[in-house]
Write a structure and sequence with these properties.
Blueprint: E1 12-18, H1 23-36, E2 39-45, E3 55-61, H2 66-76, E4 82-86, H3 91-95, E5 99-102
Antiparallel strand pairs: 1-3, 1-4, 2-3, 4-5
């Protein structure tokens, strides 16, 4: 079996999914994450963007933030669905093989993603 080296991972994205009824909850979660951790908080998208089937907000962060941020999100997501994925040079694998979920996994629009070289 071939094992991948973690040096392939340049960082991570978390996508917090929400709808109209959970918008304020998701916004508060993302804003608080931005205050507590070294993350870049993206916009609150009130429409599906890219491969994401729902409204979402992206948190971008480095490998060094992974354990603490994900532990905090697990304790504070309060039912929100969250996609966590690596940032390698293969968007398709990042959103499938290298991804994990908190909450109910959602079907992604994979045809919009590129594969690595």
């Amino acid at each position: 079996m071939d094992f991948q080296d973690i040096s392939l991972i340049k960082g991570y994205h978390v996508h917090v999914y929400f709808d109209e009824s959970t918008f304020e909850q998701a916004q508060a979660l993302c804003e608080e994450a931005g205050k507590r951790f070294s993350v870049t908080v993206g916009r609150m998208h009130r429409k599906p963007v890219g491969p994401h089937p729902c409204w979402s907000c992206q948190l971008a962060f480095s490998r060094s933030e992974y354990a603490d941020l994900l532990s905090w999100l697990a304790l504070n997501r309060n039912g929100l669905t969250i996609l966590i994925h690596t940032l390698t040079e293969d968007d398709l694998k990042d959103h499938t093989d290298y991804a994990s979920w908190m909450g109910e996994p959602q079907p992604l629009k994979l045809d919009v993603l590129s594969t690595g070289s």
